[in-house]
């Protein structure tokens, strides 16, 4: 199956910058696009509250995309939060773990997300699964790597005897490129929509609107988003990890 043969897609949509950009990317390509979110007890659960607002803004601003925007699904995955001891699911300081990974890494998260997405897509007759996984992101999460996604696509297709296509449009983009992709897809209107209507901050701070969006400005996610936005405005790329 090729992209041109597929007509329907299911986007893993958290309410954050990356997944929102992926949603626009999918709406630009497929006839029907549904969305899927997960509540796993994340500290920044406020991002889930942004999902409806972004979907509504997309429908208002882009009539052609509005025709393609289908059903939204929300899954309670609190079991993942209950078995995870990470800075994403606990009120603990964000730091580097003994493994060398940041303690915001939630083991198995994207693997579970994609398995559930495949089960829903199977039932809904959707052949494309779209996720915002990115290997060039400085977090280094192993379940965001291209090899992981390719292996997972094989496993899902074998286990369900079907032909899913796992699309990761941000895989080789840095955060400046992600802002640029939003501009390419929907111009300044989409860039501003991503800036205001999405949420990335790990600690869930949404009191102050900065030039790059809402957030505490100090956590790794905020620093990366801020640096990416500034590099995007300057026509540059993000070449160093946030400090």
UniProtKB/TrEMBL annotation:
Q: Which cofactor does it need?
A: Zn(2+)
Q: Which PANTHER family match?
A: 7-CYANO-7-DEAZAGUANINE SYNTHASE
The UniProt entry, under HAMAP family, shows: QueC
A single GO molecular function, which one? ATP binding
Q: Which Pfam families match?
A: QueC
Q: State the name under which the record lists this protein.
A: 7-cyano-7-deazaguanine synthase
State the UniProt keywords alphabetically: ATP-binding, Ligase, Metal-binding, Nucleotide-binding, Queuosine biosynthesis, Zinc
Q: Which family does it belong to?
A: Belongs to the QueC family.
Gene of origin? queC
Q: Which reaction does it catalyse?
A: 7-carboxy-7-carbaguanine + NH4(+) + 2 ATP = 7-cyano-7-carbaguanine + 2 AMP + 2 diphosphate + 2 H(+)
Which residues are involved in binding ATP?
A: 13-23
**Species annotation:** Paraburkholderia acidisoli
List positions binding Zn(2+). 201, 216, 219, 222
């Amino acid at each position: 199956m090729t992209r041109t043969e597929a007509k329907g897609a299911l986007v893993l949509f958290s309410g954050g910058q990356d997944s929102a950009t992926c949603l626009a990317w999918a709406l630009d390509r497929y006839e029907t696009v549904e969305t899927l979110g997960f509540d796993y007890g994340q500290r920044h659960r406020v991002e889930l509250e942004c999902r409806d607002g972004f979907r509504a803004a997309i429908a208002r601003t882009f009539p052609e995309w509005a025709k393609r925007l289908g059903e939204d699904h929300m899954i309670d995955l609190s079991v993942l939060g209950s078995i995870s001891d990470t800075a994403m699911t606990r009120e603990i300081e964000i730091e580097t773990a003994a493994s060398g990974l940041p303690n915001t890494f939630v083991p198995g998260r994207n693997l579970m997300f994609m398995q559930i997405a495949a089960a829903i897509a199977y039932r809904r007759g959707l052949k494309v699964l779209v996720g915002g996984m990115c290997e060039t992101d400085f977090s280094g999460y192993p379940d965001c790597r291209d090899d992981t996604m390719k292996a997972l696509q094989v496993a899902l297709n074998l286990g369900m005897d079907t032909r899913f296509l796992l699309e990761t449009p941000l895989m080789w983009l840095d955060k400046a490129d992600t802002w640029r992709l939003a501009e390419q897809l929907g111009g300044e209107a989409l860039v501003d929509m991503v800036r205001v209507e999405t949420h990335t901050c790990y600690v869930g701070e949404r009191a102050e609107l900065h030039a790059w969006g809402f957030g505490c400005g100090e956590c790794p996610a905020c620093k990366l988003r801020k640096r990416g936005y500034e590099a995007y405005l300057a026509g540059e790329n993000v070449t160093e990890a946030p400090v």
